Amino acid sequence: MNAYPVSGAGLGLRRGQLMEELEKGLPANIDFMEVAPENWIPMGKSLTRRLKAFTEKVPFVTHGLSLSIGGPTPLDTDFVKQVGQFIKAHNIRCYSEHLSYCSDDGHLYDLLPIPFTEEAVHYVADRIRTVQDILEQRIAMENVSFYAMPSTELSEIEFLNAVLEEADCHLHIDINNIYVNSVNHRYDPVEFMKQLPGERIVYAHIAGHYNEAEDLIIDTHGADIIEPVWDLLDVAYQHFGVFPTLVERDFNIPPLDVLMQEVERVRTCQSKYETVKVTGTHG
Fold it and tell me: What is the pLDDT of residue 50?
């Protein structure tokens, strides 16, 4: 059984109105929270104090945006070291990133798919191992949504599993991304999900999306979570057991009491399958 870095149902901490609402009173049913380190590095004393007020109350994880693990340019090792300092300063339980790239002699401001090739597997796995060596801990890679098919010597699931195995890293499972890709690329989301290595899961995201067309969904994190995605989470708990799950909402953020209804629904879904909460630390 996995020893997860956090437990229960979580919510992403976003600067702005949501943070201000949470500062007035942190709901007791938030078990853990998440930040993107890029949004907090560097930060002044005032913002550091505000973040500390949260990290001293509940466990935190980080989900990065700009590591560009599959990018053609050299890894920004100075940034990785800054992330390491941030992790230590705030007792962060886990660092996850996207299995994608977002830079090529400059930031591309999007998360682009890595070609599904054997060469890319070795390239990406080597870069993940470098990051893990610098941080002296395993990191987690997230299965990402993508809209244009890259080179496909391998299927999406073959590529993802090969990277996780060769890098010996953790998996940050995104339930909505599985659903989005299953519609856009026409595959069975349950069949895909059941091929993932459950023993590598550290925590999950669940989020909403935007329907551009009947056969095209855009992963936005800006809408309510729909029933098929909730159903997929339910199947995931049945198959893998209960794992920590965080509601991801980045814009069009509703009032806190409305947002907390989704957090509470995660807890309700977990309670159907969870007999013992397992907490601990991944090495």
Answer: 95
Rounded average pLDDT over 167-186: 94
What is the spatial distance between Cα 246 and Cα 9, in angstroms, rounded to a whole number? 6
Give 149's pLDDT tier (boundaries 50, 70, 90): confident
Domain that holds residue 251: 9-273
CA nearest to 79, candidates 42, 106, 108: 42
Question: Is 136 a residue whose pLDDT tops 90?
Answer: yes
In-domain check, residue 142: yes
Q: d(Cα 33, Cα 13) in Å, to the nearest integer?
A: 6
Q: Is residue 168 part of a domain?
A: yes
Is there a domain that residue 245 lies in? yes
- CB atoms inside a 10 Å sphere around CB 43: 14
Average pLDDT over residues 179-205: 95
Burial class (CB in 10 A: 0-12, 13-18, 19+), 282: middle
- Dist. CA 47–CA 234, nearest whole Å: 37
Split into its structural domains, the chain has a count of 1
CATH of the domain at 204: 3.20.20.150
Give strand ranges (E) for the chain.
9-12, 32-35, 60-63, 95-98, 101-103, 107-112, 140-142, 170-174, 201-207, 210-213, 216-218, 245-248
Lowest-confidence pick of 87-96, 155-164, 211-220 = 211-220
Quote the pTM value.
Answer: 0.90
